[in-house]
TrEMBL record:
Residues 1-25 are annotated as: Disordered. Residues 1-16 have a biased composition (Basic and acidic residues). Its cofactor is heme b. GO terms for molecular function: metal ion binding; peroxidase activity. This is Heme haloperoxidase family profile domain-containing protein. Pfam families: Peroxidase_2 (PF01328). Residues 57-290 form the Heme haloperoxidase family profile domain. Keywords: Heme, Iron, Metal-binding, Oxidoreductase, Peroxidase. Belongs to the chloroperoxidase family.
Amino acid sequence: MTGKEDFLRTLKEQRDAAPQPQVEKRQGLLDNVVGAVGGLLGSIAQSVNPDNRRPEEGYEFIAPGPDDSRGPCPGLNLLANHGYLPRDGFVNYEQVVEATSRGFNMGADLSTLLTVFSILANGDIADQSFYLGSGPGNVGGLNRHSTVEADVSPNREDYYLGCGDNHHISSRLFKQNTAFASEDANKEFTLETMAKQWAANAQFSQDNNPFLYFFPFPSIVALGAYAFYPNFFSNGTYGDGGVANFESISSIIGAKLNEETGEFEYVPERWPENWYRRSTPYGVIPALTDVLTRIYPAYLLPMPFGQLGSDNLSPQTILCVIYQGLQSIQPLALEGQTRSLTGAITWSLGKLADVGLSDTILGCPTSTLSNDWLVANASMAGGPLNPPTDYVENAGNNVFGQTYFCEAPTEPTCNNECSA
Ligand code: HEM
């Protein structure tokens, strides 16, 4: 049996062994989305430090133009729309670490981890840069699938089912998310609300996406993003008086309700009035702890973690597996040039070591490099190694002012706009 067959068999065994709670059908709630939203507006954080108010003076919102690059990350899109990042969406390492801290109080270890992977897999190592959406010619950028962008995102469709559109807000997903928030006692997008969203999305992808790709690093980014909703988008500090209400969340992720249709239009991300960032940094360890204890248990979608199902699954073991996952990433600039790969990995490991995420601390072996894609059917149409033309066309930068995916794409849906 080959290593890949072995790996796939282990995955299947993990999936079969994991308890899979049934996710209730929520269609009734979705139909009532307009009514549900009414109770989700309102309260603004009390007792906040005025220094944390955002945006600061001189960082006004300006909607992106057609040539500005925007993609799957609402946090980075917003920072570019407010001028904390270059408004054209072509960003570099220093800018991202600085802007994510200043705008949202993201810990430097977390922003470094995300940025290093993005530069390595989606950008240009020479000037440590990447595009927020798609690079020139629809190549690279954060839209590039299965590198940092992953399946089972909170409010974006899977790459395969969305026909390459993994980066616009999906109206049906945010309707579902809003319905879950309406079940919360304070009608907020809490960790519990986001855990329900995770469970529903994971089950949907497992049922419908034959190319579901859930490899450690991108999958942890997708999972982390569920915890980012309350922790970064709350008005004030989540867990310390901050409120993760509809008003903040919908404005920051750019979901504008059309009260006539009950669908969400995707508009440029911006801070709402009178908004305060969290007062303390949120870094790698609290993020992974929230993911492990509050989000992932709601649905145990199998990942290639040997520790799955045992007490050994911890932030440290996840970091270690992520660290090793660097070996399987195909850097954008280096496809087919394996001789340069070692240099790229050395660069990225050095950056991670600077913020304390080094192999010495985590005890992870870094000796073997591999270019393998861990998907058995990677070359089939729609697979990661063989995207059809429609998929490539859909990989372009975000187009705002449209509504995408009013219905769940149970099979690849290339005609995804539903504004009319
Ligand atoms: C530090 C650099 C960052 C990088 C490189 C990055 C990259 C990404 C990427 C590639 C995705 C798509 C993941 C997926 O497929 O689910 C994503 C999603 C997301 N990011 Fe970021 N991100 C960064 C910082 C931030 C910050 C500062 C925030 C919050 C303030 C944030 C919030 C989110 C959220 C909530 C999503 C999920 C969007 C959705 O599907 O609803 N990110 N990010």
